[in-house]
Amino acid sequence: MKVKPMGMLLMMLAGWINRHQQDVITYLKEENKVLREKLGTKRILLNDNQRMRLARLAKRLGRSVLADACGVFSPDTLLRWHRTVPHAKQALNVG
């Protein structure tokens, strides 16, 4: 099977992008661990806007990915926010 030069170039680019994304993810996970260590056992208090932003992204990832990726908030908490925070926001805007 003959590999076309353009196809080979695209495969190499895709591999580089994937490695770069993995490096960024690894860095962000480690950064979160360090910040969590500095925070200790103190609770992190977020406003509704912050919870809504995290919840929207969490919903796209799903519970199994969140279980591997999350260190600050549990997957259950993030998905609960997705169910409740937008509805609370709408109820405030209706009146």
Quick synopsis:
Helices cover 80% and strands 0% of the residues.
Output the keywords.
single chain, 95 residues, mainly alpha, 2 domains, 80% helix
Q: What secondary-structure arrangement, pairings included, does this model have?
A:
Layout: H1 5-39, H2 48-61, H3 63-69, H4 75-94
Let me know the largest β-sheet.
Answer: none
Apparent shape: elongated
Supply Rg: 19 Å
What gap, in angstroms, lies between the N and C termini? 67 Å
Flag low-confidence runs. Answer: none
Strand content: under 5%
Average residue-wise pLDDT: 83
Q: Return the string of H and E elements.
A: HHHH
Task: Describe this protein's structure.
- By secondary structure, this protein is mainly alpha-helical.
- The protein has two domains: 1-41; 43-95, no CATH class.
- The protein is 80% helix and 0% strand.
- The chain is built from four helices and no strands.
- It has helices at 5-39, 48-61, 63-69, 75-94.
- Helix 2 packs across helix 4.
- The longest helix has 35 residues, at 5-39.
- It is elongated.
- The N and C termini lie far apart (67 Å).
- 6% of the residues are buried.
- The model has no long low-confidence stretch (mean pLDDT 83).
